[in-house]
């Protein structure tokens, strides 16, 4: 049946069939309308992709998050983004497993934002900023649940190596209080309706991404060019990500706050390297894993800093002075160890200048996909 163009709506349907305005209304106004093709007489449909665990340390990257051999860059980046947003929607609908679902959803949105950074100079700064803010704000609405869970996990990281030396009830009160706060965050999330709200935001974003122009034969969507099928399309974004991480690392020596920026940049770099990994799997895969190890190390250091600040500011969480002092001491030692590990990893990842780094990756790209030579 012949297709017709259907506009993306600025609202969604609630569980009772009521129209729910999207919370990003106004933010995306002014961006050119995007159209998707659907069969005549039928509503647009979305096939949810199954939630597949993302690669952990040391494993190969899956084809769902990397560019395929012979696949146009515009098609690949759109496919990856839409797939990650589908992953987010499925994760948020897990019900009883919402805690894990939120963790999966936040990672998928972070990966999508890394792709946006990779092609920001192709899609335009305005589109990049709007779409980045939408996903950032969506993740923030559900982050308190994950933050509360991380505090419990961080305490376990500190206690586990010393369990034989500690009395069984060590930090029991703190553990109980952190678990209670985590439960409260889950209940609050359910009461405030944040998940349906975030779902609506992601569904709207998913529709816009599905409308990205990918075929040069289609000409132009008003104000939107097709992402060119060349390394030049992603080189400026990749160089910016690398440069920001390198600068944050240099500042981390004297500014503890820079560790957080360094961690974010390292994670974006990891996702971008995984996108490009098929260009030279053994090399870029190794770099992606090292960047992953770096971001995880910096992330754990950050989580420890948050727990230390929490216990220091709210001493009622650990009312026994001796126990509190011991915990802060253990945290401090672990932080120092992680910072030293991060510095070793960082000197490997950021060993080159930004221009030198992207020139090297570009040479791999040209070997993988030789540019068409001019006859002149």
What's the layout of helices and strands?
Blueprint: E1 3-7, E2 11-13, E3 19-21, E4 35-39, H1 73-92, H2 98-118, H3 120-123, H4 125-159, H5 172-192, H6 194-210, H7 235-252, H8 258-276, H9 281-313, H10 321-349, H11 354-368
Antiparallel strand pairs: 1-4, 2-3
In DSSP terms (H or I, runs of 4 or more residues), the helix count works out at: 11
Mean pLDDT rating? 83
Strand-pairing-aware structural class:
mainly alpha
N to C succession of SSEs: EEEEHHHHHHHHHHH
The total beta strand count reads: 4
Beta-strand percent range: under 5%
User: Strand order within the widest sheet?
Assistant: 1-4
Helicity range = 55-70%
Identify low-pLDDT runs: 1-59, 219-223
Main pleated sheet: 2 strands, antiparallel
Radius of gyration: 23 Å
Shape: globular
> How far is the first residue's CA from the last residue's CA?
46 Å
Summarize the structure in words.
The chain is mostly helical and 376 residues long. A hairpin with a 5-residue loop joins strand 2 (11-13) and strand 3. Helix content is 62%, strand content 4%. Helix 4 (125-159) runs antiparallel to helix 5 (172-192). The protein contains eleven helices and four strands, in the order ββββααααααααααα. The chain is globular. Among the domains are: 70-146 and 182-228; 230-241 and 253-369, no CATH class.
Quick structural gist:
The chain is built from 11 helices and 4 strands.
